[in-house]
Amino acid sequence: PIYSQYMFNEYFINSAYGGTYYFTPVFINHRNQWIGFGDSAPQTSSFSLHSAIGEKSALGTSMIYDKTGPINRTQLEMSYGYHIVLGNRNNLILSMALSGTWNMLQFTYQENSTYSEMTSGIIDNINQTNENSSDADVNFGMILLHNYFDIGFSVRNLLAPEPNQASEIDKINRVKYILIHGSFLGANNENSPIGIIPSFTMRKMGIIS
Q1: 209: nearest Cα among 151, 162, 156, 174
Q2: Distance from first CA to last CA of the chain, Å, rounded?
Q3: What pTM did the predictor assign?
């Protein structure tokens, strides 16, 4: 899934955010897109929990369930983070995290649910049965945190192939990609009831391709 609402839970785009709060955040999200388009409308549910362990370490976990028509994706993730204080005066912190994921992909065949059946009425002889697959993978993330800004990157699916080296089946399952992100808080006044946080996220499929 593409997390267009990442600002509500940064941990989903980079597990290095784990343990950087002064409390233990628990997030539960559900997004229902394209309401009115029938059963093929994408739905994404997620849960995450992370917390600091001691002064420099952090642990976190998350689960994502995404359904688009007959295709269901489930991802479980466990992460370990390590924090290095670079400057006490401005609370400058370098956070790094390594996480392991377990990805499950399920295709449930339904009559008239494949593309060729819906568009031209031609029976798709390949996708006539239910299919299941699962894979383990690794993610790495790094963030530079400050009182007024944060900037970082996350490499997802390190064990997966580059997009230009992947077969058509691999591209459906997973490919390697990188996220670059940041936000700026310096324009806000602590005494103001209104705050503005400009942010960005860029996603590139593959690292060297």
Answers
A1: 162
A2: 21
A3: 0.81
